[in-house]
Design brief:
The structure is a single chain. The chain is an alpha/beta fold. It contains 21 helices and 17 strands. The protein folds into two domains: about 210 residues, Rossmann fold; about 270 residues, UDP-N-acetylmuramoyl-L-alanine:D-glutamate ligase (3-Layer(aba) Sandwich), CATH 3.40.1190.20. α2 packs across α3, α3 runs parallel beside α4 and α19 crosses α21. The chain is elongated, with a radius of gyration of 26 Å. It catalyses: (6R)-NADHX = (6S)-NADHX; (6S)-NADHX + ADP = AMP + phosphate + NADH + H(+); (6R)-NADPHX = (6S)-NADPHX; (6S)-NADPHX + ADP = AMP + phosphate + NADPH + H(+).
Length: about 500
């Protein structure tokens, strides 16, 4: 597989692909015909005993797909009823032609009374919806969802933003969704992902060369995108070549987070891992560490001395470290190094985020920030509050502003680079939402940075590996039991 298999198209990019196809001489109605036929085939395959297929057709090309699907279902002998939104005489181009060659029953949407046993083909809006659904549609959606009728969505369940995955007023909960050529962000971002049901992607015949011209920098996170950046072990590999990761610990009563990060870093391939801790934490940490080394670092003076004399490759700062001026002082000393700033490290800059961004503004990307929703709002309050931006756009804007790889965490984690690339992650199970899992995650990324993986690729790989390790751990996972499964996640990269 290649990166093409994982590319996501925004509704605007898919619209561009459609236009480029028409300009190249491809019959656009033939594309609509294939799309509608694919919808009908899916409906017949998954609901062969349906009493009636109810096709809801909207005022655009999504509705055109619906008219084609209705004709194909009727030709197969199925009972079909079609209901339209708006004036069907106002349909344009291909959608108008599709409606004209539908010779079955046709009634206004308001005439439809949801009935047990109906299988609904939702062809109202598709992926391009950008404003809340009209009130009559919202009322119908509520009635259909309450009856738990089976729904096959065309492109996306009506009411779900194809760009942002959010619900615009109300949305159908589909059992299945058929989309065309490529997935859209709304198929992967929440809550859209959960409203799509099973997703089918059907190739209607747009050439790859056109998709390559129309497509952007958004992908589903997958090893095909970053596997080539990971280090390969060879016979002359030694521990220093695999990098030295330093993890900073908090005081005596706050050492657990650093131990989790350090242990994760060690099994993720760092040749050496050292926990840097204040003097009062040394006696607590020493009995708990074996292969992980320990260094007493109390202040900026001792840190600077260590940086001047030791061969250190990457750093993790924040988990359990504490919020305040010491954290900011340590980050200043690490500004020319590869650093994962997480948790307390992020919060320490909430009063002046620009200071953090300025420290890493120049040169190649070497900072990885891993905020959850609340931490993101502390560093990027204007972006967090913007109603016009979705999660992907917020992460992209944050990455550019901070010159950092941004991991905007959540059940639909987004990883973004300053150059505009963004990945949406999909493999994380819900049981990752447990204390300490973020500390483990920071350690994985730190180890990859220590081995020379570029910041964005290290962040993307860390997210995916974290998710796969959690899947292997199972629902009873804790942060401690997650760590032994990290090597098996790496093994999947070579299977």
């Amino acid at each position: 597989m290649t990166s093409r298999n994982h590319r996501l198209f925004t509704p605007e990019e898919m619209g561009l692909a459609d236009r480029l196809s028409a300009e190249s001489g491809i019959d656009s109605f033939a594309l609509m015909e294939r799309a509608g036929q694919a919808v009908a085939a899916s409906a017949l395959k998954h609901w062969p005993d349906a009493l009636r297929f109810v096709v809801l057709c909207g005022p655009g090309n999504n509705g055109g797909d619906g008219y084609v699907a209705a004709r194909a279902l009727a030709s197969a002998g199925a009972a079909v009823s079609v209901y339209h939104l708006g004036d069907p005489q106002g349909l344009q181009a291909d959608a108008r032609e599709a409606k004209q060659i539908w010779h079955g029953d046709l009634a206004p949407l308001a005439a439809y009374v949801p009935t047990k046993g109906d299988v609904i083909i939702d062809a109202l809006f598709g992926a391009g919806l950008s404003r809340p659904v009209p009130d009559p549609v919202a009322e119908l959606i509520s009635a259909v969802n309450d009856l738990e009728l089976s729904i096959l969505a065309v492109d996306l369940p009506s009411g779900v933003s194809g760009r942002h995955g959010v619900v615009l007023g109300a949305a159908f909960r589909a059992a299945r969704t058929v989309t065309f050529m490529s997935r859209k962000p709304g198929h992967l971002l929440l809550p859209g992902r959960e409203l799509c049901g099973e997703l089918e992607v059907f190739d209607i015949g747009i050439p790859q060369r056109i998709l390559d011209r129309a497509g952007g920098k958004l992908f589903e996170n997958h090893p095909d995108l970053w596997r080539h950046t990971l280090p390969a072990l060879s016979s002359n590999t030694h521990k220093y070549r695999r990098g030295h990761l330093a993890v900073f610990s908090g005081g005596a009563s706050h050492t657990g987070a650093a131990r989790l990060s350090a242990a994760a870093g060690l099994v993720s391939g760092a040749g050496l891992v050292t926990v840097a801790a204040p003097s009062d934490a040394i006696s607590v940490l020493a009995p708990a560490l074996t292969a992980v080394m320990l260094r007493e670092i109390d202040n900026t003076s001792s840190l600077q001395s260590w940086l001047d004399t030791a061969k250190l490759s990457a750093f993790v700062l924040g988990p359990g470290f504490g919020v305040g001026s010491k954290t900011r002082d340590f980050v200043r000393l690490l500004a020319d190094r590869s650093v994962v700033v997480d948790a307390d490290g992020i919060t320490s800059f909430k009063d002046d985020p620009a200071e953090l961004f300025t420290l890493f503004a120049n040169g190649p990307t070497r900072l990885v920030l891993t905020p959850h929703e609340g931490e993101f709002a502390r560093l990027f309050p204007d972006l967090a509050e913007s109603e016009g931006l979705g999660k992907v756009e917020k992460a992209q804007a944050a990455a550019k502003r901070a010159n950092a790889a941004i991991v905007y965490k959540g059940a639909d984690t987004v990883i973004a680079a300053p150059d505009g690339r963004a990945f949406i992650n999909t493999n994380a199970p819900p049981w990752l939402a447990t204390a300490g899992s973020g500390d483990v995650f920071a350690g994985i990324i730190g180890a990859l940075l220590a081995q020379g993986v570029p910041a964005f690729e290290a962040a993307a790989a860390g997210v995916w590996l974290h998710g796969e390790a959690a899947n292997a751990s199972g629902p009873g996972m804790t942060a401690e039991t997650l760590i032994p499964h990290i090597p098996s996640a790496f093994d999947l990269l070579h299977s």
